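Supplementary notes for students who missed Thursday's class. We covered one full example, reproduced here. Read the sequence, then the structure, then the short commentary at the end.
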Amino acid sequence: MKKTGVICALLSALIYGIAPIFSKMTFAWGNNGMNLAFWRATLSLPLLLVLALRGGFSLPRHAVKDVLLCGLMQAATALTLNGSYGYVAVGTATVLHFVYPLLVAVMCAVLYKQRLGIRKTVALCACMVGVAFFFDTKQPGNTTGVLLALTSGVTFAGYILCLNRPTLRDMPTFQFSLLMSTIVAVVAGVFSASTGQLTVALPPMAWVILAFVSVATMVGALTLFQLGIRWAGAVETSMLSLLEPIASVVFGMLILGDALSWVKLLGCAIIMGSLFFVTLY
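Structure (token representation):
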């Protein structure tokens, strides 16, 4: 079963890595980050509802607060990460977003007084150096995109910490996904509508891509990720998830023609190297 778990984890990382590539393609047809966050969460709701109800749906009152907090963190991540696609290459955004494992360690050190240790401290410093390679003041909007992507890493780190709460740890996968998608849809809908960015004026192909990305990530990749943890283990699945930013960089260059300078590629290498260093040793 471990081999099957490894395959599930790899497929999950690959889907998560490629999905933003297709999402950004819709920007050429009038889509934007906030609208993307709304429809990506909304279009998967009917299928998630069916799947959640099949297993029996129940939400204890004492879990409502944790669900809302976790959902708000997920919504903030969706808005900032999707928003960054309008300013920087998808691969760049995904690599910067993936500083979250080290941010989780920092938050645990601050909130729970857990020691970072020399290894994580060195990796964190290396990550900060790698991030600096992505700032390009000559490119319009670059700083905004980099900051949005980094912010998504911060909020996703908060989301990971929320997942450790006892009320959420054992919640059925599809029920949890349904609740998260609902909260993201509501928050993104309010933000996109209030800022005039909510739109349905997209060509049919854009809707096909949005529907595909929504179902592929919120149902397919999420389920594969859970199966990977169950059959291969959490550590192995986390290691294999590092394929996600690599896939985003490679397919962004191949499909979208995203150009990364040698300086930014070096930044990618430093960040990914620090993550491998922490994960493997």
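Commentary. The mean pLDDT is 87. The two ends are 25 Å apart (CA to CA). If anything here is unclear, bring it to office hours.
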